[in-house]
Structure formats: C-alpha cells, structure tokens
Amino acid sequence: MAISEIKDPTYFELNNKINIPDHGKIPLQYDKEAIKAFFAQNVEPNLKRFPTLEEKIQFLLDNRYLESEFIKKYQPNFLKKLFKFVYGAGFEFKSFMAAYKFFKQYALKTNDNESYLETFEDRVAFNALYFADGDEELALSFADEMIHQRYQPATPTFLNAGRARRGEFVSCFLIQLTDDMNSIGRGINSALQLSRIGGGVGINLSNLREAGAPIKEYANAASGVLPVMKLFEDSFSYSNQLGQRQGAGVVYLNVFHPDIIGFLSAKKENADEKIRIKTLSLGVVVPDKYYELVRENADMYLFSPRDVELEYGEPFSYIDITKEYDNLVANDKIHKAKIKARDLETEISKLQQESGYPYIINVDTANRDNPIDGKIVMSNLCSEIMQVQTPSILNNDQTYQKLGRDVSCNLGSTNIPNLMKTEDFGKSVETMVRALTFITDHSNIDTVPSVVKGNKLAHSIGLGAMGLHTFLANNKIMYGSEESIEFTNVYFLLLNYWTLKASNKIARERQESFYNFEKSDYANGKYFDKYLTKDFAPKSSKVKELFKGIFIPTKSDWQELKEAVMRDGLYHQNRIAVAPTGSISYINDTSASLQPIIQRVEERQEKKIGKIYYPAAGLDNETLPYYVSAYDMDMRKMIDVYAAATEHTDQGISMTLFIRSRIPRGLYEWKNEREQTTRDLSILRNYAYYKGLKSIYYVRTFTDDGDVVGANQCESCII
C-alpha cells in the first residue's frame, strides 16, 4: 500500500481527541494512541525494507538518492557499527506531531513519494557520516548528540545532508545594495539565485537615495525604495524552488531614511495596489538616537542617503547616525525632511498591530556588543544574524571593481532539556561546533561572490537553543521568574564558554583564525573583561541544583581561556545565534526557541489534513501551572529572559512579542482599558531596547473569537 492510498486513517481522529476535554480532563492518552496508529497504518506498510544495510545503501546510491562520495570514506564494518549504535539508542517519538512532521517533511521518500526510504535513525546516521567527512570517531560523536536530541541541525542541513538531489545546507542570507543601478540589478539577481537554492534573504535598502532625489543632472528623478521593494517581491514569487515553497525575503530600511513612512505604508492592508507589498517582510534599522528623540517628543530629521554618502565618503548604512546626528542636521549640503519622532513611533505600532511588521534591529546595541572589527548594518529574515559586512563597488557590466562581504547563515540548536542531561557539556558543545564548522567549510554559494567571500573570511556559525520553556516547566520554574532568568544566564554562559573553547581549539589545530582577528576585542582581550570582573555562577539553591555536576567556569578559567585566545586565535568570527525554530522543535518534542509556549495544547492547521494538536512536552498535572501561554504573560518577563541570554550571545536572538487584542486585566500596570493600543507596543519595544535586546522579530496579536471551546479554554482541566 502506497502513502497516497491510505484510506480512513484513525491517527488524525485520535490526535484531535486530545483537544476535547473528557470530564474536565485533557485526554493526553489519545496522542500516544495516535503515534501507534500512525506507525501501524502509515509508516510500517510504506517503509521500504532491505535484507541488509549494505543492500539498502547500495540501492540509495544506485538510484541517486544519496551522494556516493561521503559513503565511500567509511569501511562497511564501520557503517554497520554506526547504524547499530543509532538503532540501539532506543529513540522514540514522544508525540504524534513529532512523528508526523518528520515523515512528512524530512524523511527521504521514493521519487513517486509513495514509500519512505529512511527512518529518523537513518537521517541521523547520514547526517553524522556526512559531517564527519571520514572521521569515524567524530561520526559516532555526531550521531550520539543527534540521536539523543541534544543537538539539532537547522532544517536545510538536517534535510539535505547526504542527499544526491538537494538544496543548500545554510539557512539564510544577508545582502546589501549601494546607491546605483548596477548594485540594484546585481542584488535582484542575487535574490533570485539565493531564493532558488533555498534560503530566506535579507536585503538592506538603506543606502538607496530617496524618492525625488536628483539623478545626475536631472532634478527630482529618483523613484526611491518602494519600486525596488516591488522588484524584490516579484523576484521571490518567481524564484520559488520549482513551486515547492514561496520565496522568502525581508527588506531593511533605516528609520532616518526619508522614505521610511512610505516604506511602512506599503505593508498596510489599504495601501494602493501599485505600491502594496503583500509577501515581502519589512524590517527597520533603529539607531539609539531615535529612542532619544521619541523619549523627548522631539522633531526628527530624515537624511538623504545620497547627500550623506557624498559628504562622508561611505554609504549611509555605515554612518553612525547617533554620533553624527547634530552634524547631519547642521550640514546645509545634506537634504533633509522633518517629522515628529512620536508620529513615526505610532506608525510603527499601528503596522505591528495590523501585520506584525516591521522587525526591529537596534543597530547601535548590536554594534556596541560586537567584538569584531567592522560594522553591523542589518539582519536576516528572522532577525538573529548580526555580522559585519562591507559594501561592494560594481562596474557598469556588474562585475566587481571591489568585492565586499555579505553573509550566509549556518545554524543549529541545542535542545536545552536534553543537553542538561549530557555527561560532558563541553564535549557535547564542541561536537556541535565541529558539525557546524563542516557546513561552513563546505558552503560555496558561487552565484553570489560577496556571500562566498564573507563566508570564507569569517567561518561564522550560529549555535542556538530550543526548549527553554519545556525545561523550566518540567523543573517547576515559572517562566520569567528570577530563577528562570538565572538559569538562562548560566546556560548561555556555558554555551559562550564552550563555543569559545572549541573555536580556539580548532584555530590551534588549523593554525588559522578568522579574517581580521587581530583587530577584534578577542585579540586584545577586552571581550573577556566582564567575565573577569563579574561572577556569573548560579546563586539560588534551585539553579545550583539544576547545574549540579556540570562544570561552571570560574574567573581563573576565563583568564586561562583569554590567554589561549589571545595567543592562538579563534577560527569562527561568530559562534552563537538563536533562531526561532519551527517544525524542527516539534520533532525534538520541545518548545520553540527561548519563547513561552502559545498553548498548552497547540493547534496547527495542516494543508489538506485539517487541525493537528501538539500537547506541550511533559504536560501533566504537576507541570500544568508552569505552562502559561505567552499571550497571558507580561511580555517584560519574556524580555528579561531574552536579555539574560543576550548577555552571552555574540550575534542576536530572534524574539517574537505576543500580545492579545484584549489584554487581560492587571497584566500591565499602565493599562486601564483592555483594548490593545499603539502605546502598549511602544512601551514594550522601548523596554526591550533598554534591556539591551538587539532585535524584535514579529509582533503576534491574538484575537479572541470565542468560537471553539477546547482543552485550552477549559480552566478546570486536569491531565
């Protein structure tokens, strides 16, 4: 029986029953029954089986399902050993959603999509073999971290590793435009190519001259950023991986750009169809000076990027607006417009209420915390990647007069509940760093030379985390409490310490550091000052107990690491970035990223299938009170947790704000009425800024419709 021929399966019905309270209880047993039914009715009848491992691998090679090169690096006896190890680990999916997502989205299938060719164990094994590049000991280490779900490669990596017909391993890209037509043309081509191979693309438009700016001798001829946005939106719609997925991109604009109001207005539902942006995401780059002007209820000047570049000799994005603001205002050679800062603040909040956009990049905060020589000017599609870039200079034939540096994002996540059970935290993290390093070393996006250059010079990776709320709830810690903040602080301290140790070790092995290491705050030792002057060890008895048996570096350990880094360098320019994590969190049976859960029993709408329900990991009568929905939580508590992680994160953390359209009474002390207002979002954005957050991803607004009464609406439910 083929997958498409499955008739009347019971697993969807069983899964749906968990959302129907039974005498005041959430009947979680139905999810376990749904898993069994899914394997019995869907997986087992359609999993292609082979008499031996050798025959299975040979079939996959002969039919071009797997690349042959990485398999040939291992002896048959070792392949048997590795597969015996992963199958002997006793892996089991803990939820129907996890099993369904894996076999639907990740498992290798026959060309007709009617049979499965691999299990979760197989996918882990092929990832491990691919990353290890022939090193048997390393392959076993990779397999150990992944089969026990301490480490999860990002979706493009986990999905594509080892496959003969595949996309790229990296997650997303950052490119920038300069103020000329050649750069715009090259940028559109780059977006087409990058969208084709599978990543989301971030594009910086801040350097483009505003609408009405002069072009050579012609007065008031420039069209501004809006038509360029439309060109990119059409490019992503066209370049959509043969219809398999919608191309995805985000455009960033500095809040001091004269087109900022039109930029935001293009995303509104009632915008003119000629300028309306439907599928492209929007982000704004926000310097410190903006927050100062909003606080003072002052006028705000917007500056012509063309004039600024002529005066300063470098593109607008690379000017420190906060430092130069008064000089820019006083300079008569720079055309400028004037608005009220709070009017713009209100427009940002209105759009976030309506659409969830724009993303916010606190660019001065990012650069203050940046230990690398150079300037961060933008972020990626999910707002967690923050790396230095340099602009390119193009000839009229779009060849490079000077090749700049752009960014590709290579990501993976630790699973917090599982990594906290590891026998050796440092060894686990080093193994993850080496897996990410393999992808970085073998990534070559040759269609976009500036991305290739950036990757080769930086060797950057982005190790993140998922499952924070799961871990806290299962240890009976309220999300947002002092204990949760303390735990997050120590966990990310350890990630920072051990990724530094691993990067330093790799630099010593290879006798190579990232480009311009000698100009970084790692090389001069300044980066380590806070670890030598402040004690980050756990203080509360609860958090001390959680880290019992796990090494916590002391000031002397940091001093030793500082000396090693100054002496031998670091291989990776960037090491830590926390992505939002989507379907991959379900497969790991844990909560997404660092955020609180949305619902105790989450409802997902699947195409052609209907609704699937996912109960929070470890949900039972004891953990139920600790699983508070993000929509019922004071967002300042979430921001405090993210701020604790940011303290030790060299890039960014993707953070979504969750807020109800009708806010629960007493949740915020400034609220008298219950309706969400633009002031609420402004207060939260400013709070995030003052707590040192580098970015805000989406703003999600939940609207109560009262139509469905399920497990989440039944306040008296028990498990």
From TrEMBL:
Catalytic activity: a 2'-deoxyribonucleoside 5'-diphosphate + [thioredoxin]-disulfide + H2O = a ribonucleoside 5'-diphosphate + [thioredoxin]-dithiol
UniProt-listed InterPro entries: NrdE_NrdA_C (IPR013346), RNR_1b_NrdE (IPR026459), RNR_lg_C (IPR000788), RNR_lsu_N (IPR013509), RNR_N (IPR013554), RNR_R1-su_N (IPR008926), Rrm1 (IPR039718)
GO biological process, any: deoxyribonucleotide biosynthetic process
Annotated EC: 1.17.4.1
GO molecular function, one term: ribonucleoside-diphosphate reductase activity, thioredoxin disulfide as acceptor
Signal sequence residues: none
Domain Ribonucleotide reductase large subunit: 558-580
One GO CC annotation: ribonucleoside-diphosphate reductase complex
Keywords: Allosteric enzyme, ATP-binding, Deoxyribonucleotide synthesis, Disulfide bond, Nucleotide-binding, Oxidoreductase
Entries under SUPFAM superfamilies matching the protein: PFL-like glycyl radical enzymes, R1 subunit of ribonucleotide reductase, N-terminal domain
Gene3D superfamilies associated with the record: 1.10.1650.20, 3.20.70.20
The family this protein is said to belong to: Belongs to the ribonucleoside diphosphate reductase large chain family.
Function in brief: Provides the precursors necessary for DNA synthesis. Catalyzes the biosynthesis of deoxyribonucleotides from the corresponding ribonucleotides.
NCBIfam families: NrdE_NrdA, RNR_1b_NrdE
Name this polypeptide is given: Ribonucleoside-diphosphate reductase
Species name: Xylocopilactobacillus apis
Phylogenetic placement of the source organism: Bacteria, Bacillati, Bacillota, Bacilli, Lactobacillales
